Amino acid sequence: MNLRKIHIVLLLVCALLLGLGGGYAGVKLAQSNNNDAQDNKAITENIEGAKETNTPKEMNKVGQAFNLIKENYLEDVDDQQLIEGAIQGMLTSLEDPYSSYMDVETMKQFNEQIESSFEGIGAEVSMVNDTVTIVAPIKDSPAEKAGLRPNDQVLQVDGESLDGLNLNEAVAKIRGEKGSKVELEIQRAGVSEPFNVTITRDTIPVETVYSKTETVDGKKTGIIEITNFSERTADEFTEQLDKMEKDGIKGLVIDVRGNPGGLLDVVEDILKQFVPNDMPYVQVEDQNGEKSPSYSELEERKEYPISVLIDEGSASASEILAVAMKEMGYDVVGQTSFGKGTVQQAVPLGDGSTIKLTFFKWLSPEGNWIHEKGVKPTIEAKQADYYYTNPVQIEEPLTLDHTGDNIKNVQIMLKGLGYDPGRIDGYFSEKTEEAVKDFQSANDVSSTGKVDEKTAGLIETAVVDKIRNGEDDKQLEKALAEIYE
Q1: Rounded Cα–Cα distance for residues 342 and 150 (Å)
Q2: pLDDT tens track for 95-140
Q3: Where are the alpha helices (DSSP H) in 125-256?
Q4: Integer Cα distance of 258 and 337 in angstroms
Q5: Is a pLDDT exceeding 80 seen at residue 352?
Q6: For residues 321 and 256, what is the distance between their CA atoms, to the nearest angstrom?
Q7: Is the pLDDT of residue 433 over 80?
Q8: Who's near 74: CB < 8 A, 6+ residues apart?
Q9: Where in 158-297 does DSSP place strands (E)?
Q10: Which residues are catalytic?
Q11: b/e per residue 399-432 (b: at least 16 CB within 10 A)
Q12: CB 3.0-4.6 Å disulfide test: which of 4, 13, 176, 393 passes with 25?
């Protein structure tokens, strides 16, 4: 891990990636004409300044507490445990979910994650109102396959409550080796009762750019999906965009839905290909309100129209891209994004551990701050109703004349899969029973018309597969329909 990575300035959407270790949506703070040596020098000076800061007299109280515990506590206490606890306590008192302490082991795991693939469930998280909250599952990860969504709250892990744990402690319970299983209790907005999801951990690849073309009104249109802004993302994006431009695309859709962020220099390198030099692509504001804009060297914008796709899982660096393109006059399609507009700096403490502290705000080209508000789309578009259904918890089979939210969920899912339940209000009608029988028959299950645990699982799997395959993607359809208007 070189100096540039270790001393990176972070724009965090989450404190940890639920993989082998801690991963964050980090970014390098950069000026338009800075080189790596200048960046490293400035960051190192900040770190040295922190070391030289005078310690206030009140810190004697901390030393007194340390000695009191060491000399009098009933059981032996490790020095490092007390020191790290004091650091964590100071950071917790800030009530800032993006400022935190990362111990030696967590930093080691993060370094492994940022440079290669890693193991886990593949979801980025944040602490929201003292609750571990999913920011976004990673594309093709176990978390995505299990149906986890942005803003899902994780209440328990393998039957143990996460109440009172910080984010690092909660993640330590969730992560694990490939092939092992973890059961999460999830609370989802709009669902009255929590539900359990069992996920098998796996290797999570760091491939971040996917592209394809579609013909819209006789015009070849490029679609590039960015799932995370990691070290190779800008190069991959440029390679795939160059290929599509040589193939003669007449329009482009950039899809950052479910993208929780990444490295600032990476999103900068992408924006430099679109934002001309007469406007900044991002600004950073310090404690004194002084703003530092960053500019490209691009003379002109692209000749073809561009749209950007966002949703509630688009955060951090994704929002930098989306709001810059929006303020250039391009359409942003989908739903309001996550809303992460602060910048953190990772300051090594000399022993391999790091403090991650909020130093700055980032602002849009026009100086707007989207923190806790998100980027609003110019064209709002939601997915089909079955995209928002929830896992069905089965204690007793659901049958004719039953009512409830579980039945409503099943009806919406069946309708989304092409079966006709007759109604979607939660009443198990004869028409719903027929739809269940039709589904069971098509899936080689005894056609009882009852929704037992096996049938519910098959319905959920079919819905997740349809969503992951990109079928019936209303938001993408809307972006393509509007791009040449």
Answers
A1: 19
A2: 898 898 888 877 776 665 544 456 789 888 888 888 999 988 888 8
A3: 142-145, 167-174, 233-246
A4: 9
A5: yes
A6: 9
A7: yes
A8: none
A9: 160-161, 181-187, 195-200, 202-204, 209-216, 219-226, 251-255, 282-285, 291-294
A10: 316, 340, 344
A11: beebeeebbbbbbbbbbbbebebbebebbbbeeb
A12: 13
Rg (CA), the chain: 24
For 172-219, how does the pLDDT look when each residue is reduced to its tens digit (9 = 90+)? 889 888 999 999 999 998 777 899 999 999 987 667 999 999 999 999
pLDDT at 52: 52
3-class SS shares of the chain: helix, strand, coil, % to 5? 35, 20, 45
- The secondary element (H helix, E strand) that includes residue 414 is helix 405-416
If 0-12 CB within 10 Å is exposed, 13-18 middle and 19+ buried, where does residue 109 land?
Answer: buried
**N- to C-terminal Cα separation, the chain:** 48
Q: CA-CA distance, 202 to 95, in Å (whole number)?
A: 33
Is residue 480 within a helix (H) or strand (E), and if so which, with residue range? helix 474-482
Q: How far is CA 170 from CA 26, 154, 166, 205, in A?
A: 20, 9, 6, 23
